[in-house]
Amino acid sequence: MLSKGHAGPALYSTLAIKGYFPMEELSTLNHNGTRLPSHPDRLKTRGVDATTGSLGQGISIAGGMALSHKLAGRPNRVFCIVGDGELNEGQCWEAFQFIAHHRLNNLTVFVDWNKLQLDGALDEIIRAFNLEEKFRAFGFDAITVKGDDIVGLLEAVQPVPAADARPRVVILDSIKGQGVPYLEQLSNSHHLRLTDEMTAALNETIRQLEAAHELTSHPQDKRRRGNAQSVRWLCRPAD
């Protein structure tokens, strides 16, 4: 569940890598008639479970999904990504209270804590204070992981022991635009239009990543090549 629906392009890239639609379709993002609008729409895009973008609603839907699995005795797990700016919405905290009350330990929440939101720095708009302490006060098992720590993320998504009824929240200490130095330094990357200079910088970063990981020598390894390919399609000039 992508509650922070404005990150739709990242979801679409993942869905394309997993084969839900051709990689080439990523270049239709936000075009008239596209199946890939800026915010995910379950009626338009294959693989999207819920329409999101009105912040706070995705985590509420995720809580309902997790409860339905519990009531039906299904072993399914639910994962939900929320933004740190999204936590300004009171609906999020109503949902967290609901989730903890019903002991939905089959739900894992990821908070993208990149310290920026649409209108500026998080601390300048509404301070988040200590997120771990807040979530623990709401009855969650809360941990913080670096956003690019793959090993830490894999450990964080392990099932919660059955004896522990607490839902889990993983606070991702991240940097907006991480991995692309040019974007990491921008404060307005939330709603950025890519210039030719930015596209060139992205392509250079991809080239360096491919060289570092020897991706070009593994043409059959689609998982390793997928991220670079999806970024390339998103960076293509409009037709």
Automatic annotation (TrEMBL):
Protein name, as recorded: Transketolase
Alphabetical UniProt keywords: Thiamine pyrophosphate, Transferase
Keyword Transferase: yes
Its EC number(s): 2.2.1.1
Pfam families per record: Transketolase_N
MF (Gene Ontology): transketolase activity
InterPro entries: THDP-binding, Transketolase_N
Organism listed in the record: Raoultella terrigena
Recorded name of the encoding gene: tkt_2
Cofactor(s) annotated in UniProt: thiamine diphosphate
Domain called Transketolase N-terminal: residue spans: 1-232
Similarity section: Belongs to the transketolase family.
